[in-house]
Structures are given as C-alpha cells and as structure tokens.
Amino acid sequence: MKLERASSGAVEDAIKLLESNNRLPDKDLLYYLELGMLHRLAGRYEESQKAWMAAAARIQAASAGGVAELTGVMRGLSSYAINDKLRAYPGYDYEKVMLLTYMALNHLAMGDYDSARVAIKQAHELEAQIAELRAKQYAEVEESARKRGARSSFKELNGYPIETIDTPEVNALRNGYQSALSHYLAGFIYEALGEPSLAAPGYRLANELQPGQPLLEEALRGLDERVFAPDDGMTDVLVIIATGSAPAIQSRQFMLPMMIEGRMILLANAFPVMTATSWAPLPAQVRLEGEVLPVARIASVDLMARRRLMDDMPSIMLRATIRSTVTATLQYQAQRAGEREQTLAMALAAGVITAGSILLASADDRTWRALPADVSIARARLPRGKRTITLETAEGPRSAAVELSGRYAVVDLRLLRHHLFANAPRARAGR
Questions:
Q1: String of b and e for 242-271 (b: at least 16 CB within 10 Å)?
Q2: Which of 19, 183, 273, 424 could join 206 via S-S bond, C-beta 3.0 to 4.6 A?
Q3: Is 2-423 in CATH node 1.25.40.10?
Q4: Which stretches of 21-70 are DSSP H helices?
Q5: How far apart are CA 277 and CA 244, in angstroms?
Q6: 392 near 283, Cβ under 8 Å?
Q7: pLDDT tens, position by position, for the chain (431 residues)?
Q8: Distance CA 369, CA 204 (A)
Q9: Residue 183 · residue 202 · CB < 8 Å
Q10: Whole-prediction pTM value?
Q11: How far from 343 is each of 150, 198, 264, 332, 354, CA to CA, in Å?
Q12: What ranges do the domains of the chain cover?
C-alpha cells in the first residue's frame, strides 16, 4: 500500500501511512528501512540518512558483530518452539549490503564523495564477514539436521513451488548478497576521488559478478587516462536506473502427518514462498538531450531475494522440524491424558494445542519491499549544465530535469509504475 501511494508521486501520503502503522515508540528495523527509502524518493537525503543510520544501529545491536544470527542455529529458542516471527527482524544479508550501498548513493547526491567512500567500503567489509560466517552457519545447520534426521531440502516439501526460487538465473548468482552495482559504484567513487588503483578492483569484481556486459567492461579501459586527464568541461555521468520493487513473501501452510507411537497427528507447517515481483520492463536506452545511452542490467534484487531464500531453506526446515516435534509431543500427551482421565477439560486441552499449532504456524513474511526489483546503468561523458533525461517505458516516456556539474556525477532514477523519481547530483567540491 505504501509503495502504491509512492508510485503515484504521493510520497508524503506513503510516509503518513507508514507512521500510522507504526505507532509504538520503539520502531522496528523495517520501519527505518522503509522510511529512509521514502525520504530518499522525496529528495530529503539528510532525513533519509538519519532513518538509515537508525536502521544500521539496530542491525549492529541485534547482531553483536554486524551480522545477525550467523552462528549458533539453536539461538532464539522461541522461534524454534513456536514461530519465526517472534524473533526481532534482523534484516537479510542482501538488505544490509543494499542499505550501505544506498547510504553511499545519498552521500553522492549531497556531493560528499569522501563519506560515500566510507559507506561503500563498509558494504564490502560486510560482504567479507557474511561470506565467512555464512559458511560456518550452513555447516552447522547441515550437521544438526543430520543428527536429528530432519529434512534439509525444500525439494522434499510436497507441493512447495520450487520454480519460485530454483531457476537457472537464481543458481547463476555467486551468492544472495553480492551485487555488481555495489562494486561498480565503488569503482566509480574511487575513480572520482583520483584513486585508480582502488577503482580497478571494484570494476573488475563487478564484471565477474555480471559477466558479458560490454558497458561494465569498458570501465576498466582507459581508467588511468580518465583519472589524470585535465578538466575539459565535461562530466562523466553514471546513470542508475532502478525499476519495480522487491518481491513479497507469502506464508503458505502444509499439513504434514507425523506418527507418534502409532498415532497419526496432522501438523501445520508454514514455509515462506516468494511471490511475483512488482516488475517493470527494463528500459533499452536512456536519452540525455541529444545523446542516446545504451543500458546494461547490473543487479537484480529480485533474484538476490530468491537466492537468499533458497540458501536459507535448510535452516528454515530445521526450525520447522523442531517445532513439529515439540508440538506433536504436546498433542500426543494431551490426547493420552484425555483418554486416561476421560474428562471434557483434557479433551479440550488437546483441541487447543492442535488449533494453536495451526494458528502459530506462520512463516516469516517480513522483507524490505521498497528496494527495487532490478537495477541497470548507463554511462557517458556529457557537457555540463541543465539537462533533461528521459526513459522510454511501457507507458510512454518519463522525463526528469537534472543539472550536471563537476567532473563526475551520479544520476539515480527510480521508476515506480507511473512515476519517475530522480535523485539529482550535487557537484563535488574541488573536482
């Protein structure tokens, strides 16, 4: 609903709706993630940064090391015994990396390349932490599942829509949290700061993560010459085009039978399912006045979200197995007690436990929906001054006015259904 209002240009209404849905004084992580994006759409970068700094603080506080719940699969016992939603939402890995990437983009919009450098460096340090700790967690989950005889593959779930997460595009990703966008942006920032030796690794990794894109490959060609060339009155413009919104998660239940001492007990187990994303066709080109710029897809949050779910399914299934065992045991004991006592009260107790297991069997459907579904880029050297940038969309052209100044500039466009938001750059002092 918030995104629907924002997609018509009514960002203030979207913020009011967000506030009305979060009246408690202690706001959760998703509130600050969504608030920061809405302020960004409105061009209020300081307010956006304030919200996102609050989000980053919550992530850090919840994780004690910057990455939540990466070791110790038996932590958070309430979620194992009852429901995943009882855990404070820690944010998914790709959301944390994208948070830092967008904070860097806010700094660029305000002309602060030095702070953008810090934010993008933090994003890549976080990626390294995630890589190390996720490997430990996956091994721990696999060992725990083996000892318990638990199912660990979502393909064993009868009726689970495997095609929503197990696709060639999803499997082609190196992981669910790295994106060529973050690393290409790092290369651009370091290049703008006159540090080609640091820019080159960023561009190189972007090419590895999104291979076969000539536009990305061109960034490495002539890097030193661009950095050390005299100012010729042109601006090196990086255009970022974000479309759609990240996919939603649905909780779907599967009634699974369990045998306890010869008794068949049906238990409701809920698992998260990715739904269709709010998608918009990627523009084939961007027009900047008389210049027609080719566009290259550089990242898909939609695919990253699906890869994240696929990678997390063994852990989700382990928790479901533990919950099923606990609930089945309680149901069996209540039923046996009802038989022995032959009382209405005990029979009701068995029914309450059974009904309660169904009500509590709800998968965690929380996610940062305000992120885009897909991100593309275009790049060119253009004369400075006021320019009109136009995207050709399925519903006709969408235009925004920007002013190019300085040697380097990032123009960040967000297409939400009918509305085009433009985060115009401010010149970096001294460049």
A1: bbbbbbebeebeeebebeeeeeebebbbbb
A2: 183
A3: yes
A4: 29-41, 45-63
A5: 8
A6: yes
A7: 677 888 888 899 999 999 999 988 889 999 999 999 999 999 999 999 999 999 999 998 877 643 444 444 444 444 444 566 667 788 999 999 999 999 999 999 999 999 999 999 999 999 999 998 888 887 887 777 677 666 667 777 778 899 999 999 999 999 999 999 999 999 999 999 999 999 999 999 999 999 999 999 999 999 999 999 999 999 999 999 999 899 999 998 876 655 566 666 666 688 899 997 766 677 778 888 778 999 999 999 999 999 999 999 888 878 777 776 666 666 556 656 655 554 555 454 445 445 445 545 678 899 999 999 999 999 999 999 998 999 888 778 889 999 998 999 999 999 987 789 998 776 443 34
A8: 30
A9: yes
A10: 0.87
A11: 35, 75, 22, 16, 17
A12: 2-423
Amino acid identity of residue 169, one-letter, is: E
Distances from the Cα of 325 to the Cα of 42, 53, 148, 260, angstroms: 49, 41, 10, 9
